[in-house]
């Protein structure tokens, strides 16, 4: 079984058993029957759950098939990110993180520094984090493509450099998905993602996961999850596993439509800073094309309109697109990213997440909304 679509449909399913469902339902259990010593696979609800186990196996099959890697599911993407950083770093350690990553990273950096961990930051583009590496660094954190700016870095190059200094390497793979990019195959030690986004894809589940190359490191991440209680609910885990069956269909449709939308936006005079890694003239395209899989450059297109008011007129004029945060869902969303703070973006910056609507309908709606946003509404 080598194709992405087949793997996504079959990943993590148990052996066929007469009169049993192909995907068993969620197991709701705070405790399990436990005679004698506590040595079985399921002892207490915060430690493990059969529904998590099935999902984690499926994610591993997608992120790193046949490698012996292990995955650990979390209640959210930030739960997964925090688990890697806080389970591996100690007082006096140094970590390197992107300066242009997810907007909650600054808050996490503040927490790390409060624990006595030194943090260096550099942008994702042009592999700028290389300059921050030395023998004091214990962990290098990459986010590629970056959110929301869509810069890309060379995972293999950075991982090799970090390992030469004795550092571990984690990659936030949220935007790419395991069908678009396999960080462990490119040399990373961790692939981390918010399953809230494209992995589950329906905007109804909060989830995160970490896939670890080394089972011993996976055990330390799993112990952190147990200690802080950042566990996914069985229903969320089951919904996520169910959603994997359509992952390739969704990702391929979204990536193709996102590229078509980016191409349609290229000639608009009111748009600046248009980014999508699939565009041949995008600064990230060369590296993205070399390390991202199957022409899947993600579902996100970013660009700036002249100012906040112009951006708000555009968003209010959309009919097939929800003004909402997050990305990767089957329904297209867009937002003025500056409303949250934490991202170094212009006031008119738009992060647009392409769903699975008919491409022609979606592009028509976007161009119509852009036309309507050119002139302010008179009072």
Descriptive overview:
The protein has 379 residues and is of the alpha/beta class. It has helices spanning 4-10, 50-63, 77-88, 105-114, 155-164, 177-180, 215-228, 234-244, 247-265, 285-291, 308-317, 359-373, and strands spanning 70-74, 94-98, 118-122, 137-143, 168-172, 190-194, 208-212, 272-275, 300-304, 322-323, 333-336, 349-353. The strands form two sheets. Strands 1-7-6-5-4-2-3 form a seven-stranded mixed sheet, sandwiched between helices. The protein has a five-stranded mixed sheet with strand order 8-9-12-11-10, covered by helices on one side. Strand 2, helix 4 and strand 3 form a beta-alpha-beta unit. Helix 2 packs parallel to helix 8 (234-244), helix 3 crosses helix 7 (215-228) and helix 9 (247-265) packs parallel to helix 12 (359-373). The protein is globular.
Strand content: 15-25%
Give the SSE order as H and E letters. HHEHEHEEHEHEEHHHEHEHEEEH
Can you give the helix content as a percent range? 25-40%
**Number of helical elements:** 12
Outline the secondary-structure elements.
Elements: H1 4-10, H2 50-63, E1 70-74, H3 77-88, E2 94-98, H4 105-114, E3 118-122, E4 137-143, H5 155-164, E5 168-172, H6 177-180, E6 190-194, E7 208-212, H7 215-228, H8 234-244, H9 247-265, E8 272-275, H10 285-291, E9 300-304, H11 308-317, E10 322-323, E11 333-336, E12 349-353, H12 359-373
Descriptive tags:
five-stranded mixed β-sheet, alpha/beta, 379 residues, single chain
